[in-house]
Design brief:
Elements (H helix, E strand, L loop, with lengths): L18 E3 L4 H4 L4 E7 L3 E7 L6 H21 L4 E7 L19 H6 L1 E2 L14 E5 L1 H5 L1 E6 L10 E5 L17
Parallel strand pairs: 3-4
Antiparallel strand pairs: 1-2, 2-3, 4-6, 5-6, 7-8
Amino acid sequence: VQCDRYTESAIFWKRGIKATKVDSNLNKKFPKILTQCIEIENELLIIHPYIPPQTKRKTREQYWTNLLVFTNQWSETNPEHKIFITGDLNTTDKRLGIYHLDEYRYFDQVTAAFEIISNRKVVTRGNNTLDVALGNTIAKENVSFWKVLDKLSSDHCPTLCELRMNQNLYRNGNRKPKET
């Protein structure tokens, strides 16, 4: 899923894996926040938000409320799906990072619905943990690992998360990469 707003963010998947772009309507409601959604193998919904740092608190609250409505509707029709939210949230809530001082009440509803997967002790930009991973219970139970990688060409460190899937994603000639 390409990013058309120059945020240096994208979702990549291997050839042969069934991936379908999902329209959440969040980009229409919140044009300054980029939200990419993709369904993998009819089993996993990945939601990748980029929330610019200058986004006002009220807009963030409205955004998360709308995102939760979307994920609740998705869960009603896809109750066994893993839901994984990962991206540059630019949110300095202390539940997300040990160096953060804020506690936003609007984020209470998010942490009630989704568990924090990322490690709040590991920074991704400066002294901040801005690149965060959240998941529903099914996703959290299927996380093999989450880690921050070395900085690339961005001011943020990329993150990597591996989730166990019910489907064999390496069928049709796709081979699982060798461990290094």
